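Predict the structure of DUF7042 domain-containing protein.
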Amino acid sequence: MFISWMINVGLMVSILFTVVDCTCNNLPLTNGNWWDSRVNKAITINTGTVTDGWGFSINSQQFDTFSCTISDDSRWVFRSDNTIELLFGANYYAFYCLQYTYLTDNSYMYYVQSDIEQFNGERVYLVDTSSANNNSVEAYCSPDNGRSGPDIREYHVFVKENTQNSVHQNQYFPDPLLGVFSYTVNDGSNTFCGAESVWDGCYDTSNSIDRTTVILNYTQCSTTLMGAVGGKLYNVANVTESGSTYYVILINADGVDPIFTCLAVSQSGNTRYISTNPGGCAWNQTSTSRTGNADSVLITMTAYETCLFTTTTSTTTTTTTTPAPTTTGVTLEADTKASENSDGSNTGVIVGVVLSLLLLIAIIVIAFLLYQKYFKKRKAHIQHMTLKDQGPDIKRPLPPDSDFTLSELNLKREPTMSDDLVIDSLSPRGKALPMERVLSRASAPYETQSSQRNYL
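Done. Here is the predicted structure for DUF7042 domain-containing protein.
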């Protein structure tokens, strides 16, 4: 019983020592401005709170700022700092669950794991205040109505402001964009450019192989494309849908609006088909149709030359660490770094569990030693007392050569003639003792009698 009690105490202590990350301490989005492709502009982050850039309104009521409240190894949950009144007078918070993947130190891709809200048609989760105190990430990251979750193409990116010249490093284009092409552009009303235009996805301005940058030659076609006044855009991330359509997010090298443009790309022989969408990719975007955005265009390209990798599997294409949906086209370096970040965020939990186990083992050892020292000693003492109390009353036996069994010292009266029969009956050897010997032995000193007993 004592050992059971000690084990229970140990388990309770281990629970107290277990480390559980229920906050956003591992949020890597540092203070300052980050470009967000979902809103296609800069947002401001201060100690885990988006103070500007995410605000939206429903029924003329505004959600302004959002704070990261809970997270795990691959998801951040942001909750609005204020509530608005909606159905039947109830107050509601707005939640964003962002499932993210590391790209570079200054860039991340993410999916909004929320339902499409009927009030504004966007992926956001509205929760009444009576149900908004759950500390489980899963409670806010399980879309289940309409389109049950974001489509593979519905990803977005964060890029630290003014780091566009570095985030494209090792973020290579998918195969259909690895080439030098002529292109035409159709905005729904007119067609621009033509056979003499140049889209270069192979070389940088020094004519070295790049594979991460698009350079547009505006001397051949002066129409500004995707807001890139300087004619240069960088690859930030890309995913593949069923191996046939690629979704690529480009960032404007000028760092001006539009910051991001999503390309849906497919290939047929020597021809590439592209549709554009400002910001992130649209949920229903295809390579052959313009999206609902007025600035969406269709681009048709024909390859002059290509610069494919000899082995694309080991250098450019892997499966990302995002559990769902599955994406491809993120480099091995990005996946390795994401794994390292995940390991780092788990360090506290691992240390806590190890310490708890060591503490529990120590408690069990101490309990065992106490048992050995206390219970076994007490058990031996109890057994000794039992034997002492219940054992027979053992008298010292008479000497083997004794002539009689009654002590001569108890003879207090003068013997009579009739005593011969009595003494005779008590003789162990069946011999009658003469009265004279009895009287002489009774009158002799006790020491003499004892010394003579062996000689009768």
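The chain has five helices and 21 strands.
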